[in-house]
Write a structure and sequence with these properties.
The protein has helices spanning about 20-30, 40-60, 65-85, 100-110, 120-135, 160-165, 185-200, 220-235, 245-255, and strands at about 90-95, 115-120, 140-145, 170-175, 205-210, 260-265, 285-290. Strand 2 (about 115-120), helix 5 and strand 3 (about 140-145) form a beta-alpha-beta unit. By secondary structure, it is an alpha/beta fold. It is globular and about 50 Å long. It has a single domain, classed as 3-Layer(aba) Sandwich (Rossmann fold).
């Protein structure tokens, strides 16, 4: 039976699923996705958002699409290094939505024993599973499973899914992209603490995520804070910018139980990766957290 987070004592995160259609269309239009993940909803949302994107780039030197591309490429880069150079062979992408990463990475590393698991709330997971199955992409090494990261003591909880679905002998890397800022700090740090503890059971663990910090000096923060109430209403979530500086980011993830944290800035990858270059400092950050088994 599909679980609904609203039936528990935790916030309902199902409202953010519609953003998966928009980001999925961004990946498709930028040549990062696969044809079978296209959606009518995504096309409509993308076209509706274009005036805002154009205005942002003209007035601020950046927009949401630019930062989406920056974070996506950096996450892919860190992920691929972990697979090629460190032997991480078990990947879990939580809140996968219509991300093409599972298909792209599974194809790219077809020559090694890599297991890629996509996970989301039952509604989105079911849609993704159907699309992948129809395209012939599902296999024992590329699966889609149901998860509810805010629930506990149920079959779809983080702890139950990892215990049931993952190989405890493999180095394991977890990704959440476009998720963190939809939750207030108390809620998201609760998830981080549970994830850090769960990953510590594996030989080595990496948690990759993006976030938009609350840097008071950044011009985009003022704009983001202006629009976050509307986004929170649309997504039925607590849209929040977290952390006032890089040191606070490292301390926050350390407090959650991760052994080490590295903050990746898009500017560090200009000329290294094929990512959009902005005339103003980027606001998005990619966070690489690590755990080691006791």
């Amino acid at each position: 039976m599909a679980l609904d987070a609203s039936s528990s004592n935790f916030p309902d995160s199902s409202g953010i699923s519609f953003t998966a259609f928009y980001t999925g269309e961004v990946w498709r239009r930028e040549g990062l996705s696969v044809p079978f993940l296209a959606s009518k909803q995504g096309r409509l949302l993308y076209l509706a958002g274009m005036p805002v994107e154009w205005a942002g780039k003209a007035l601020l030197g950046t927009n949401n699409v630019i930062m989406l591309l920056q974070r996506h490429h950096i996450i892919d880069h860190v992920l691929e290094k972990a697979v090629r150079e460190e032997g991480f062979t078990q990947i879990v992408e939580i809140a996968c939505g219509l991300s093409p990463r599972g298909t792209v990475i599974s194809r790219r590393f077809a020559d090694i024993d890599l297991h890629y698991i996509e996970a989301d709330l039952p509604g989105m997971a079911g849609r993704k599973r159907h699309l992948l199955e129809k395209a012939g992409e599902l296999s024992s090494r590329h699966r889609v499973i149901d998860i509810d990261i805010l629930a506990q003591d149920v079959a779809e909880s983080l702890e139950a899914v990892f215990a049931r679905e993952l190989d405890p002998t493999r180095k394991t890397l977890v990704i959440t992209e476009g998720l963190v800022n939809y939750f207030d700090y108390s809620t998201i740090t609760g998830f981080w603490a549970r994830l850090a503890k769960t990953l510590a059971a594996f030989p080595e663990g990496i948690y990759l995520t993006d976030l938009y910090p609350n840097f008071g000096w950044h011009p985009v923060v003022k704009v983001a804070n202006t629009f976050k109430s509307a986004l929170a209403f649309a997504t039925r979530s607590s849209v929040t910018l977290h952390f006032g500086n890089e040191a606070a980011i490292v301390a926050g993830f350390g407090d959650a139980g991760f052994d080490s944290t590295c903050v990746h800035l898009p500017e560090s990858y200009y000329g290294v990766l094929d990512i959009p270059v902005m005339r103003t400092p980027s606001l998005v950050r990619v966070i690489e957290n690590r755990t080691a088994s006791a």
